[in-house]
Input
Amino acid sequence: MAALAVLFTVFTSANAFAQEAAAATTAKPVDMGPVHKNAIFYVLMFLLLCLFIAIVGKALKVYELTRETQGKPEGINWNTVNAVIFALFLIVGLYGVYWEYSVHGKMISHMHEAASEHGQRIDEMFKLTLIITTIVFILTHIVLFAFAYFYRASDQRKAYYYPHNNTIEKIWTIVPALVLTLLVLKGFLTWRSIFYKVEDPKNRPISIEVTSSQFLWDIRYAGPDAVVGKKNYKLITAINNLGIDFNDKNSLDDLMAEEIVLPVNKPVRFILTSKDVIHSFYMPHFRVQLNTVPGMTSYFEFTPTITTDEMRTKLNDPKFNYILLCAKICGANHFNMQKNVRVVSEKEYQEWLTKQTPYLTNDLRKAFNLPVPVEAAPAAEQAPADTAATAAKVALDVNNQLALKK
Ligand SMILES: [Cu+2]
Output
């Protein structure tokens, strides 16, 4: 009781302190921010709860002992209490499962159909796994808790000694083994069909490099040569923020883009790298997710099948947009790592591509000892908009000259 008194005093004084602090904030118009309860508060609350349970337990014990000394039968049948708690747990738990499926299950349908070829296979796999595991989960839990309820200890029955049964052992070993083998095998084959596929020489993927850093995505398109040039972290400077190696001629025509634009029904190969910590390249509508790891390059190739416009019509939502997100908690502004993704026709894609800015600026040309085109110099320095197309052409011309020299 003394311990309880001490705890209570500490608790009330802590509370009074919090109230004083709150009063102080209301008196002044200055916003002091919310009053945070520290760890000690929660530890005290926990100890208080333990103490409460212990006191109730002691009180019940006193009640039982009193009945015993008076020669009365036991007041509380703990076997029945436990059995009823088991039954209640089953009912509440099953309702919880129903709630989870009906409330959060709806959120899955917000995702709508997969907008990529392989996405449909991933969805199939997801549904199959969910159906099998849900059936098993519900059946086994009904059996578990219902048995605990119906076969609770009772003075009316004698427990039946049943130590072993080979048939039951075989059934509960072989059936789950078969089901799990089926799931793992199907998962493995689905995964393999996504990552190892034979390339169609008539329909080669376009290459896009994505570099993650805290807290943004840098997008680099391959340009007309369809090859993304090399980069090296040792080349990173104030003007070359990705460390692109312009000694590699494949880099000369590479383009930077503010958003990701993809032509529909054309395979796209994403080259994924990271500058600082691990991020995760996540495009939910295409069922694409892969970590971007510093010091390592990973790849994901897929084919988008539904254009943004088609999806807007399907969803009856004129504001719908595909999106690229970071799916790895990478720091304070993780939530803000987003990029707009647009799927368009081949023609629109080509038009858009000609408007993108080349990475290679005149400053970079000087830094890499590359010839600077004289007539286009002022235009290229101001960069964006319609001048970008001219700059891209100049870059190509210089590229060709270089190629001739070699
Ligand atoms: Cu992140």
User: Anything to note?
Assistant: The mean pLDDT is 82. The CA atoms of residues 162 and 168 lie 12 Å apart. Residues 2-69 form one domain. The pocket of copper (II) ion is lined by residues 279, 326, 328-330, 334, 337 (CB under 6 Å).
